[in-house]
Every structure is written in C-alpha cells, then in structure tokens.
Amino acid sequence: MSSAAGPSTSGGSQEAGSSRSSRNSQSGSSELAAPPPPPLESLFAASRTSSQVALLCLYFPIGIILALLRFFICLHAFLVTLMLPKTSKVRCCVVRVMCTVLGLVVVEEDKNRDPDVKVFVANHVSIVDHWLLDVLTPCVLPSVWDLPSVLNWGHIYKEFGSSTQPVVSSLKQHLETQSTGLLCFPEVSITNGSALLKFSQLWPFELGAPVQAVAIKATRTLFRDLALSTLESTWLSDMLWMLFSPWTTFRVSRLPAVRRGKDDTAEEFAARVAEMLAAQLGVKTTPHTYKDKLDIVKRRRIERVARERRAEEAQALANPELMRMAGQVKEVLPDVPLAVIARDLQETRSVDSTISRLVDGIVHYVPEKVRVLSPQPRQSTSTKKDSPVNELVKNAENAKVMFNTSASNFGSTAEERFASYQERKARLIENARLKYIQKHKLKL
What we know:
Elements (H helix, E strand, L loop, with lengths): L1 H31 L20 H31 L5 H13 L2 E5 L10 E4 L6 H8 L2 E2 L27 H10 L3 E4 L10 E2 L14 E10 L14 H10 L3 E7 L11 H16 L2 E2 L4 H28 L2 H13 L5 H11 L2 H9 L28 H11 L15 H27 L4
Parallel strand pairs: 1-7, 2-4, 2-6, 3-4, 5-8
Antiparallel strand pairs: 6-7
Helix pairs in contact: 2-3, 2-6, 3-4, 8-10, 9-10, 9-11, 12-13
C-alpha cells in the first residue's frame, strides 16, 4: 500500500508542479502581452464639433434662446448657493431643481453612503462635476483648476494655503472642526472619460482618513458626440456649450470607502484607489499626468503659430507690390530676413514705417549674415588733387558699410534713450547713403 502510494504522491506533486509552472508561464505571457496604455491624445477631444451637423443647424436658434434663459437661471442658482446654508436640505433640493432646468440631470446609481466618510475623490469629466457632487453631498473643493477665483464665493471652494497643493495640516483641521467633507479631482485636468490620468494630487491619501471614490459618467442627449470639453477649451466655452445643449446626464456611482494600509505610501494608496475607480468606470489607468497635457497644448500652439506664420509669409511673397517694397527695405537693411520684412509690410504698408520699426527694435528678428565685398582699388590716371566731392565719392566707394545700428547700452533716462535713437537713426541714414553711392557708382 505504501509503495503504491509513493508513486501516486510523486505523480501528484509533479502534476501540481507542472500546473504551477504552466500558471506561471501563462501569467508571465499575459504580463508580456499586456496592452500598452492608451495614448495621451486619446483622452481629450481635439474638437467639439458633432457629426450631426444638419440636426445641430436646425437646433441652433433654439439652443441660443435656451442658453440665454439658462444663463439668468444660473445666476439665480448661484445666489441661492450664497444665501442658504451649505448643509441645508432646502438648498440641496432647490439647487438640484435648478440644475435640472439648466439641463444637468444627476442620476445616483450606487449610493454607498457612509456618514463617517468625509474625503471624496472623483474622476473629472466636466466643469460642473464639483457642483453636482456638492448637491448630492455637501463638500468643499480645496483647489480651483478651471474656474476663476471669483466663483469661490459659492461655498464650494475654499483656500487651504495654496491653490495647487493645499496644506495637509489645514485640511486635517477642517475635517475635525467642520461637518462638510473634502472633494478632490486627483487627475487635475478634465478628460473625455476614456481612461484615467495618473493621480497628481496626493493630499487626500495623506490625511489618514477613509477615502471614498466617486465615478462620474456623462452623456449628452440628442448630440451624443458633442464633446463636453476639448484639449484647449476654456471654462467659459465649456459652460456656454453646456447651457446650449438640450440636457446632459451625469451618472454618479459611489464605491466603498477604503483606508490606507500601515505599510502603504501615499503613492501606493493613490494607485490602489485609481485602479478601483478605473474598474468601476470600465477604463484603464495611464502613466500620463496633467503636465503631459500642458506640454501637448504648448506644442500644438507653437505649431499653429508656425503654420499661420508660414501662410502669411507665402501670401506676402506672392504679392508683387509687397515684394517691391520689401526689396526697398532690404536695400537699406540687408541683414533683416526678407520674410520678416514682408510680414511687417503686411501690417504697415509703408516702407518708412517698417524701417523705423526694425531700427527701433519693435520687430524682432535674427539677423542674416551679409557678405561685404570690398571694391578693387582704382588706379589714378590724374595727378591733380581730388576735389572735395570726388574725395567723398572715393571714400564712399572704399568704405566698408556696417549695418549694426544697435545701441551699445540702454539709456536709463528718456533723454539718453532719445539721444541713442537719434544716433542710431543718423548711423542708419549714413549707411544707406554710402551703400547707395557704392551700388550706383555715382560720379559727382
């Protein structure tokens, strides 16, 4: 019996070992085959335009009237938030009704309300997320990212030392002394909800209090692909489009509250909450941060300015009259690029004005290297003494024209700056006169 049991046991251990090795190999292959995170550009809408162009054109007059009416209703709702106490149930009911009139429908799916939880974190999909969550549960947003500071009067925002990184001690004091909770959007930036940015604000995970994640999903009725926000949109444009749309539905789900482990750092705790929030939303987390978004916005603006400048230069170079005027300026200031001259002439339409703007430094440019050709000396065939006029011509022919008209130093007083301007102006005129004599080989 024992001899029979031995092989079976060894065979079972071999099977268990092979199963473990197969699981390890499968897990390793799954880790290797894990899909990469979505690109950063996919988290933001490039434009707000809808594919339903015909329907949008028909709705446009109605939307304008609706936006105007809602604008005045929005002012009344803002006054209500100022006058009524923040924790008043009457305030919550009145503001919620006004939100519905404004086209902001809030549907609370998974409530999971816990009276002991006073720290909330949520994903950021629109500029009214803070307002809608405040209607459901009175809370304070320590940081203001996309709205002007004048709106801090609505009892939704509060300064805690800094608008970008609140002081943790002040936040802890608020939790101990106030009945309202704290709300945070750790992503900092608004996204389209297709993925989560890496949490950049970590103060909710440093308070030592339980944290409840809140998942927000937003959809527009009638215009489903009309973006709530775009990559470069402002809070004002987002608000106007929000008032213009028929209505927008926000579905809010609360996850169970979690606590920070004893050995967890703030970063690890934030990553764990982010994974829970992403699972509730059905999306993935990404290593991208809001600073990466700022880099994209900056790069897009630089590229747009460069494209506009190239288009202006091409348009200017295609204008014969403008090129004739640019040639006149180029004769006087050969170290100035022709494209810069043509672009400024499009604004001034005057050779003298462009020269003055270039000399005074109003138009900035990178000087071109001008090759100065020294003329060959002429053999004198006359033994007579040169007249003063001929001497002037000879000096002009042999002169090396220098087009550096910049001042050696910047005057500290208005009189010194005016004297420097007159000096540079005289130097420019003298350079232009000498070059003109050299070019046309005048015989006076």
